[in-house]
Design brief:
Blueprint: E1 15-18, H1 21-36, H2 42-55, H3 61-64, H4 69-75, E2 78-82, E3 85-94, E4 104-112, H5 121-135, E5 142-148, H6 152-161, E6 164-174, E7 193-195, H7 201-211, H8 227-230, H9 234-242, E8 245-253, E9 260-269, E10 276-281, H10 286-301, E11 306-311, H11 315-323, E12 327-338
Parallel strand pairs: 4-5, 10-11
Antiparallel strand pairs: 1-2, 2-3, 3-4, 5-12, 6-11, 6-12, 7-8, 8-9, 9-10
Length: 340
């Protein structure tokens, strides 16, 4: 586990320095909330509340950081200080990707208060973060981040530093207050939705390789296209159980062989009202399989609200989501930095 800075020092020097959890958590909560409030979901708001609560723990924070994933990630970042006030931040998190994908990192919470922007603060924080990543990684490592599609200024900064664009994803939400209207699903008698089988991991992975190649960012920002992502082994099932997480998968099989042409994962967690849904459909059956799977999840979870991330460029699925009254929450570009 990486070392975590919780120094008691009260000395404040203007400019860049590593995050100090003992003194910075409340300021970081204010900064992150200011920068991202317009796009923050319920999970983000809960994280802000947790940061403020932890900022009041004091000397016991050193114990909590060993248990709290959020705080561990915050501890590896950098802040920019002006007059004793934290005005900029970048957070760095190691990913939990499978080992054969190399050591990879998440860059998050790139934030500077509006009155301090256009001074090069974000660039300096990012450079320090990338230096930190290089010092702890081999040449096969990557750093990944996501940025709003319409934030041209931030994308320009990232590209100048060597980040490259991968795929664009849209975050959709169907409100629980929507009427349970259901459009007519196109008829195709040979397709059926079934529960996945224990041995379906290889077929799921093969579908993902076709429609969500790792070279385009994989399944989603933090979900690589890798066999282990689909392998529901005993340890993963036990971990879900201990964390009060329920993961269901529905599949549609080809009428000609056992290959999968549609796949949906529905993840529900204790204390989270709306499930998080992921969807993949084969090119040959994309719109029909999307209709069938989305219709199924709306019938079962429509009264709870539904969240779904999906590639922005799959326009036929976008049309189906709109039919079922999903609305766009945010559209983000996934970007990658290759450590050399």
């Amino acid at each position: 586990m990486a070392g975590i800075s919780i120094s008691n020092s009260t000395t404040q020097i203007d400019g860049i320095r590593p995050v100090n959890l003992q003194t910075d958590l409340a300021d970081l909560a204010d900064l992150i909330e200011s920068a991202f409030s317009s796009t923050m979901d319920a999970g983000g708001r809960a994280a802000i509340r947790e940061m403020r609560q932890l900022s009041r723990v004091g000397f016991g924070l050193g114990v909590i950081t060993n248990l709290n994933e959020l705080v561990q990630g915050m501890s590896l970042g950098y802040v920019w200080v002006v007059g004793g006030k934290v005005v900029g931040n970048v957070s760095i998190y190691p990913t939990s990707f499978p080992g054969d994908l190399g050591k990879n990192w998440i860059i998050a919470n790139v934030a500077v208060y509006p009155e301090y922007r256009k001074r090069g603060i974000a660039t300096r924080l990012l450079k320090a973060s990338l230096d930190h990543i290089r010092s702890r990684s081999n040449k096969n490592a990557h750093a990944i981040l996501q940025v709003d599609l319409d934030n041209d200024g931030a994308q320009h900064i990232y590209e100048k530093l060597g980040f490259v664009r991968e795929r664009v994803f849209t975050q959709w939400r169907r409100s629980p207050f929507r009427a349970l209207y259901e459009p007519e699903t196109p008829a195709y008698s040979d397709l059926r939705i079934t529960q996945r089988r224990l041995g379906d991991a290889a077929a799921e992975y093969e579908l993902a390789r076709q429609v969500r190649p790792q070279s385009q960012g994989g399944l989603d920002w933090l979900r690589p296209t890798h066999f282990q992502t689909f392998n529901m082994g005993l340890f993963k099932r036990l971990n879900n159980w201990l964390n009060l997480r329920d993961v269901q998968r529905l599949v549609i099989r080809s009428p000609h062989d056992e290959s999968l042409v549609g796949w949906m994962q529905i993840e529900s967690s204790f204390g989270v009202a709306s499930p998080q849904v992921s969807l993949m459909t084969h090119d040959d059956y994309r719109q029909l399989a999307a209709h069938m799977l989305i219709s199924s999840v709306v019938r079962r979870y429509g009264a709870q609200g539904i969240n779904l991330n999906h590639p922005h460029d799959e326009k036929d699925v976008t049309a189906v989501l709109r039919e079922y009254q999903f609305a766009i929450q945010r559209t983000v570009v996934h970007m990658r930095y290759d450590v050399r």
